[in-house]
Design a protein that fits this description.
162 residues, mainly alpha, Helicase, Ruva Protein, domain 3, Zinc Finger, Delta Prime, domain 3, two-stranded parallel ribbon, two-stranded antiparallel sheet, 9 helices, elongated, Replication factor C C-terminal domain-containing protein, DNA binding, DNA clamp loader activity, DNA_pol3_clamp-load_cplx_C, ATP-binding
Amino acid sequence: MSSRILYICKEEGLNLDSEALSTLGSISQGDLRRAITYLQSAARLFGSSISLKDLISVSRVIPTEVVQAFLATCKSGNFDSANKEVNDFIAEGYPVSQFLTQLFEAIVEADDISDEQKARISKKLGEADKCLVDGADEYLQLLDVCTSTKCLSTSVRGVPTV
């Protein structure tokens, strides 16, 4: 895919930095049409020099550090921190459904979370996504997800404490 993207960029007169090229492949999930759409959108909004930040902006993908910070707050079990993190997230205007997808991926890939905990958290993420589709409040759903995963913070031999 990257050779095709580079060819398209050359033909269209776009400058795409190497870091953005690798990111484009992951945010488009290998879909060339989606990648081209992101390139077109970024070119319209930001001009012919397209950076990593530009692609992330048009793709509506949440930066990894935001997802990891949220996950760390969930693990802490501190309600005040969770409330602040959720408020900050909502204030940034990130799409919550995209966030739940990325949070799911981060949890599945985490080495410090047992399979049983991953299953419970995945179920909670699915419930939150369903509630959002049904029109539930984003703040309340994110806060529920964050406070429901506090069992990740401490576990003894893989058994979560609640």
